[in-house]
Specification:
The complex is a heterodimer. Chain A has twelve helices and no strands. Chain A starts with 9 loop residues before the first helix and ends with a helix. Chain A has a single domain (5-278), classed as ABC transporter involved in vitamin B12 uptake, BtuC (Orthogonal Bundle), CATH 1.10.3470. Chain A has helices at 10-35, 41-59, 63-84, 89-110, 115-124, 132-151, 153-161, 163-168, 173-191, 200-214, 218-243, 247-278. In chain B, 44% of the residues are buried. The chains are: A mainly alpha, B alpha/beta. At the A-B interface, helix 1, helix 7, helix 8 and helix 11 of A face strand 6 and helix 2 of B.
Chain lengths: 279, 250
Amino acid sequence: MTLFEFLEPAFMQRALLAALVVGLCAPLVGIFLVQRRLSLMGDGLGHIALTGVALGFLLQTNPVATAVIVASIGAVVVELIRAYGKTSGDVALAVLFYGGIAGGVLLIGLSSKKSNVNLLSYLFGSLTTVSRFDIALIVALALAIFVATIILKKPLFALCHDSEFAQVSGIPVKLLSMLLAVMTAVTVTIAMRVVGLLLVSALMIIPVATAQQISKSFSGTRILSAAIGAFGAVSGVIASFYLDLAPGALIVVLVISLFIFSIGFSSYTRRRSLRLQVR
Amino acid sequence: MQVKEALEVTNLSVHYPGRIALDNVTLGIKSSSVVAILGSNGSGKSTFVKACLGLAPIQSGKVSIFGTDFSHFKDRDRLGYVPQQIHDSMGIPATVSEVVQSGRLSHGWLRRFTRDDKEKISHAIEVVGLKDRENDSINTLSGGQYQRTLIARALAGEPDLLFLDEPTAGVDLATQNIFAEALKHLVEGGTTVILVSHELGPLRPLIDRVIMFREGRVSFDGSPDAEAVDSHIFHDHPHSSSKPAEGWQI
């Protein structure tokens, strides 16, 4: 047995690459959702992605690609409801949650029975079944999200910190909000093979909440959360190889452990700095 | 030909479900003037500012900025805005400098910051007296320091027309004095300032004109030295009331 035995199987190489890019990108989008108080948006769009996966089964197209399209359309609809409808953001999200699950279950019912088993791999993640096409799609989309979050860092920060000020400054608030929603939908869909649709929001939000305990700047929180996401995702996949447990659940448990540690660390440093001030 | 009116509002009405927030308001504000908008809570003064900036739904009427209808006004770098804000200390951490940087986005929201942008940002932080806190998280600031950060954000954009919605609400006298100094600096540069407030305080010497709102209409328009202004401040100052005023920011 070698130290890097986990790198030998081809499926593990694909799984680690997928985990790395998804772990990096999910918090880079999640930070804007947390800042905008839309932490549960990833969950809502995850449910819509389920309809996309089911539609992929029904139409016998690639479920990941179909889910990207369906979740992106769902994201645009939610933003339109938020911007122009008389419905608040959380009601729009609730409609997504239930509509997405119902659509997924109905479409699965219309497709072959074998799909029920496959559906579980999307709900809870199944990195070992990631195909070459899936990995190419995941890496390409993750790269696009990574670049977009770098280019749009400042206007997205302005929008999420104070949308009225951003609007007065001439930043296209509605367009950027829609873009953020679509970026969330794409992130959710590419992350579903890694952690599963039911746990996808955790990888977007918990690394951000962890970094928030330690960092004092937005840039610092952004970089640290991406590092925590990548570390958690890659470590979870490696651990799953040796422990023969579901990688999605292991990744989420790992990042939650880091979050708990960060709370303790932050509390200790705060107390220490207070003690030093008193002296 | 230079446009004399920085802001021109004609028959402006804003209706919210069940109430009329602004009722057929018509007024003009000259370039390089400093105008205070006073009124009690719910009088329509903040709605007026929001309607002028496209942040409130206009029922009828027209808003022109530097002679251009607001819906066609593209020179957003000429506009500045300090919103009425309640400080949230639990959000994502961001430094004072990061927040103030947003003020330069009105000059182009997709471009990279130049050395000039960085100098303007640094200068704005200095003007509001937060140079020693520029790398500190806004989550560690007091309400007054946070308000100063928002003022620096507006100053960083070097606006020609600046709207301030209760910028000195709930801040101490020292902060009000720093704000008055910052405002003086702007006024000397020719910026038109529209300031919503409950009180004039240290800003009084800078104010050219006072417009008072009552039930969505202009109830007074004249000199800051007029008796009506003092009488409003005496009666409507939130701290002079025996009951706590609604919406007053601490």
